[in-house]
Structures are given as C-alpha cells and as structure tokens.
Design goal:
This protein is mainly beta and about 70 residues long. Helices cover about 0% and strands about 35% of the residues. The protein is globular, with a radius of gyration of 13 Å.
C-alpha cells in the first residue's frame, strides 16, 4: 500500500495539459503527467520509491528548456 496520499497535491499549467504532483508536507516533486505529447507522457521521481537502487539504472538526462 502507498501511504501519504492525503499529502499529494497537484499544480496544473499549460491550459491544464500538464499536472505536477508534489508532497504538501515536504515539497518533494513526485511525478507529472502531460498531454502535450501523443501518447501522453508520464514521469516519476523514483528517488521517492523504496527498494530501488538508483545506481543500477540507466539515466536519461533532460532539461526543462528542451524537454
């Protein structure tokens, strides 16, 4: 079971096409959803997840300007 759902808040922008989710308690960005692309795009902050060894993952770097 995932806990903390009561703290999950959302900011919408881009005419509501993008939703950024964050913890209202600590402020960490958890994930976002965007319909700007086809198919829609999801991104998750896996640093929020337990039992994931980030060191073993392939990383794709992006920046906000070209994303």
């Amino acid at each position: 079971m995932i806990s903390g759902q009561d703290y999950l808040k959302c900011n919408r922008f881009g005419a509501g096409a993008t939703e950024n989710f964050f913890c209202s308690n600590c402020g960490i960005h958890t994930h976002f959803y965007s319909t700007y692309t086809d198919p829609p795009h999801y991104a998750y902050n896996i640093a929020c997840c337990d039992d994931i060894d980030i060191e073993r993952l392939e990383v794709k770097y992006i920046d906000g300007k070209s994303f």
